[in-house]
Amino acid sequence: MKPYLPLFLAALFVASPAPSHAQAASSQSLDGIVAIVDEDVILRSELDRAVANITAQYASQPGQLPPREILEKQVLERLVMVRLQVARAADSGIRISDAELQQAMNSVANQNRMTLDQLRARLASEGLSFDEFRENLRDEVTIQRLRQRYIQAKVQVSEAEIDQLIATQQIGGPEMRLANLQINLPEGATPDEIARGREKIEQIKGLIERGETTFNAAAIRYSQAQNALDGGELGWRSYDSIPPLFANVLRAMKPGQITDPVRGPSGFQIVQLEEVREASAQKVTQYRASDIMIRTSDLVSAEVARQKIQALRDRIAGGEDFAKVAKEASDDTLTRNAGGDMGWFQADQWGTAIGAQVQQLADGGLSPIFQSDVGFHLIKRTGMREQDVTEDNRRNKAREIIGNRKADEEFERFLRQMRAEAYFESRLGA
């Protein structure tokens, strides 16, 4: 599984769909309960399937997995967090339609360069249920929607904050691939608990540095972060997208090296620098064009709209000014008052139909009539340029960095609070 599922799905795939209360009640005599979460239960069969999925992902590297009892605790905690988030989303009125779910499934298949049928066959070949995959993906999309809704209400980024970040940090530049390993501390940890946490992460770091284990294997075995079962992988980050305390240390490190333990809001963590790469180029091709659009509707059939725009094209081909015709007749309210001028844009910024036409035209060229999902169009290309978007990208990157930091902090706080407020009873080993 792991090589062809995207990281977010690999992380979630351990979660099994929640049984209804009726299903749980009818099966409890045959299927033990391993945990109670609020008014719901997690069954032994769910945990076993989840552990089996993780084991399948690491079938070629079984030595990276911790002992069964530790793995069960890690997977159970993830099942609990998924269950709590999905329940909170349901209480908030979040629903994922079948159409949205189908789109997400197609996206997963496309990312892995497969058709949906090929993905189904691949899952079946590894003994994994497509129906379970589908419901787990619904949970993942639900959780993403919950996170989006929560941070939209909590996170705002001002232009002043962007200016300040740009003034104090170099935005852009090299990127690095990171992994982390975290040992959690309870809220209001005592000095003894803090000392034990520090000692534990120091011991783990020592194991890695002596070559007794790899960082990723140690993360799977010991880390208490949400990404533990992914080997602690954090993906590619720019230096300016992580907390300055880590960034300053990482700048002086070489791939393979590990930071000293750092205490954060959730506990102690160490970070490994895995790879470094230069940032991609920041130039894009932009086009300028003018547009006339005749909208189709219940009152204007496709044939009537086509005839109307053909008449407009004939007028322009006969010498009338494009801008004058656009102001008189175009249904595109965004461009009509400007004589159809769409400004500078990247090829597909106005949709794939317009993008395909504008790329084929020469400057000054008039397109044939073509159809989009809103009506029929006629465009005239007026320019093309290679544009340096470094400054725009810097500001967008700064906005993203600040937003992501705030979002991560807010949502992590939200998850900790939700977990602390939930009723949880583990029956593992009972």
End-to-end gap? 31 Å
* Strand-pairing-aware structural class: alpha+beta
Share in β-strands: 15-25%
Give me the strand/helix succession. HHEEHHHHHHEHHEHEEEHHEHEEHE
CATH fold name of the largest domain: Triger factor/SurA peptide-binding fold
With strands numbered from the N-terminus, the spatial order across the biggest sheet is 4-3-6-5
Number of helices: 15
Low-confidence region ranges: 1-29
Tell me the number of structural domains: 3
From the spread of the alpha carbons, the general shape counts as elongated
CATH architectural grouping of the largest domain: Orthogonal Bundle
The CATH class of the largest domain: Mainly Alpha
Average pLDDT across residues?
85
The strand count comes to 11
Rg over CA atoms: 27 Å
Query: What percent of the residues sit in helical stretches (DSSP H or I)?
Result: 40-55%
Can you identify the CATH superfamily of the largest domain?
Answer: Porin chaperone SurA, peptide-binding domain
Largest sheet: number of strands, sense, barrel closure? 4 strands, antiparallel
Subcellular location: Periplasm
EC number: 5.2.1.8
Protein name: Chaperone SurA
Keywords: Chaperone, Isomerase, Periplasm, Repeat, Rotamase, Signal
